Structure formats: C-alpha cells, structure tokens
Amino acid sequence: MSPNRQSLRKYSQEELTSFLAYSGVFSVCNQDEIDYILSQLKTNKYKNETVIAHREDVGDQVRFVINGSLNIVATSLDGKEVRFPPIGPQRWVGWISCFDNQILSHDWVATAKSEVISVPGAVIRKLCENNPALYPKVMTEINRQFKLLMSWTEFVSLHSLTARVRMLVQILAQISATPMDDKPGWLQVDVTQEHLASFLNLSRQTANKLLVELEKEQIISIGYRKILINGEKLPNLAS
Question: For the chain, which ranges sit under pLDDT 70?
C-alpha cells in the first residue's frame, strides 16, 4: 500500500459545510468558525488502498469519509495483521488525536476509491479554546467511539464465535454502512470476506461459515466485496 492520490471533483462551500454538519461538534460553531475550518481542511482521493497515517506517526487529524472507508490496521510482533471494523461514508473519526500527541500504535488505511476530508488537530484545539462549548461535543464523539471499541474488544475476548459475528454486523451497521436506495430497509457495507475474517481474527473459512448462518436467518446477504444488512433484523440481533 502506497500513496496514490489523484485529482477529484471540487466540492462547493455548501457541500463542505454539509459534511461538517454530520458531526455535532460543529453544530455550535458560528459562521466565522465554519469559514475558518473550510479554509484549513484538505480533501484527498485515493485510487488504491493507501496508508494515510503510519503507526509511530503523531495522529493529529480529524477525518471525514466522503466515499469509501477508513480502516484501523494493527500488526502484531510476528507480523500478523488485524483490522478493526471500518469507518464508512458520512462519518467523522479521530477526535481523541486532537488532544493526544502520542504516536499511533496502528496504521490508518484508506480503501480504494476513497475520498477523505482531513482537518488538522490544531484547528480543533484553536476552536475549542475560543469556544469552550465545543469541548462537551468533542467528548461526546470520543465517548461514543470509545464505547464501540470497548464493546468490540469485549465480544472478541469473551464471547462465542456466533456472538462475535453478530456483534460485528451490529457495529458495521453503525459505523460502516450506507442505506440502499434500491432496497429500502437494507444497508450496504463495502468490504471483502478476507477483511471480515480479519475483523473477527478468524480464518476466512471459519468466518464465512458464521456469515452464511446469518444469511440463512436473512439478517445479511453476502455479495461480491460487500455484505447487505437487513435493518429490520438489527434490534433482535444480539438476542
């Protein structure tokens, strides 16, 4: 994976402002603050899967996924790669890095054909210093993402394989999926079966067997480099 950026269509100020509105952090910003953010953000498109932040870098960026997804990829001492469920379109991530200058313990990887907005952490810190009402909003974002991470860690460590895969589907629905216009009530996650297995820390064969069981229950539908999630089944998925 190497940097592979290409030109992309220009987004209007109105479109960029609408992307900011996907986070409650920016809902208390006035127009001058919004204009300041717009003047500092950058938008990149990645033709191929690309590492956009390496472990041992200082991860001082907040990012918004326009298209594609962002993955946290950790590597063990013996070289084994483990991925966490991806951050999908129309979601912001990375708030904690604005207030933590420690180096990353993982890579941030953009999937192929991803478009990502980046806002420097210094911008967020300046906004918070000038507008303290932003701090609770940022903490809410950090807490929400931390709770998801802890839930996932708990299920991977303590629960059965069946419970683990069901929890994965719930998390994917929250942070990775987009609604399907041509299939109301269903959500789409663009992801390979290889990566699904990595999220579960299982072999591809074992992960596929578990996913097929969910497909038989009509909870998901497995496609090429994607899975579809039946939104109507989500409330009862953990039972």
Answer: 1-9, 238-239
Helix axes 31-40, 13-20, angle to 10 degrees: 100
Which amino acid, 171?
I
Q: Are 117 and 67 in contact (CB under 8 A)?
A: no
Number of Cβ atoms within 10 Å of the Cβ of 30: 9
Rounded distance, CA 221 to CA 77, Å? 35
Nearest CA to 196 among 178, 216, 215, 222? 222
Alpha-carbon distance of 141 to 128, in angstroms, equals: 14
Residues 99 and 59: beta-carbon distance below 8 Å: no
Give the angle 130-133-138 at the CA atoms, nearest 5°: 100
Crossing angle of the two packed helices 121-130 and 31-40, in degrees rounded to 10: 160
Contact 187, 231 (CB under 8 A): yes
Residue 180 CA to chain centroid, in angstroms? 18
Which helix (H) or strand (E) is 197 found in, with range?
Answer: helix 193-200
CA-to-CA separations, 93 to 46, 53, 119, in angstroms, rounded: 18, 13, 11
Cβ contact 207:193 at 8 Å = yes
First to last CA, the chain: 39
Residues 6+ positions from 16 with CB-CB distance below 8 Å = 38, 41, 117
Distant-in-sequence, close-in-space partners of 211: CB < 8 Å, separation ≥ 6:
165, 193, 196, 220, 222, 227
Residue in this structure with the two tokens 């663009």, named with its chain if needed = 190
